[in-house]
Amino acid sequence: MDYTKPLPAIDNWNRPFWEGARENKLTMQACEPCGHVFFPPGPVCPKCLSDKLNWRELSGRGKVKSWVVFHQLYYKGFADELPYNVTLVELEEGPHLMTNIVGIANEDIRSEMPVEVVFERATDEITIPKFKAVSR
């Protein structure tokens, strides 16, 4: 595949996130003792400091908390998408994720707008979670 946008660096900490995304699943770390779901991943729960962690599939639903629309070209791979949004989504389970809202005009994005995850296949190894507006 010919994908020209920047790609994530996959490491031992985030590999389960990207493996889940490749299967069209949004997964994040969760603490077994306190149930806190968090992102980015790490060695201990940021709430209770337990190291008893697992990965769990999330609902993929959330809401827009903030966004910016880029009109300036910083990476050649985004040239055909100008202007494009970079959006902070708060997931139902609590974590926040930087992403893009797709399938809607940038001027129609609203604070607290309900969204759900969709997946964009970037390469054979990388699938990127993005979000689309939904009515609730």
Helices and strands, with pairings:
Blueprint: H1 15-22, E1 27-31, E2 37-38, E3 53-57, E4 61-70, E5 84-91, E6 96-99, E7 101-102, E8 114-121, E9 127-133
Parallel strand pairs: 7-9
Antiparallel strand pairs: 1-2, 1-3, 4-5, 4-8, 5-6, 8-9
Structure explained in plain terms:
The chain has 136 residues and is mostly beta strands. It has one helix at 15-22, and strands spanning 27-31, 37-38, 53-57, 61-70, 84-91, 96-99, 101-102, 114-121, 127-133. A six-stranded mixed β-sheet has the order 6-5-4-8-9-7. Strands 2-1-3 form a three-stranded antiparallel β-sheet. Strand 1 (27-31) and strand 2 (37-38) form a beta hairpin. The N and C termini lie far apart (36 Å).
Q: Percent helix among the residues? A: under 10%
- The residue ranges in which pLDDT falls below 50 over 5 or more consecutive positions are none
- Shape type: globular
Structural classification: mainly beta
Mean pLDDT: 96
By DSSP, the count of extended strands is 9
Strand residue content: 35-45%
Tally of separate helices? 1
Largest sheet: 6 strands, mixed
Give, in spatial order, the strands making up the sheet with the most strands.
Answer: 6-5-4-8-9-7
Rg computed from alpha carbons, rounded to a whole number of angstroms = 16 Å
List the secondary-structure elements in sequence, H or E: HEEEEEEEEE
Query: What's the N-to-C terminus distance?
Result: 36 Å
Describe the structure concisely for a colleague.
The chain is mainly beta. Helices cover 6% and strands 38% of the residues. β5 (84-91) and β6 (96-99) form a beta hairpin.
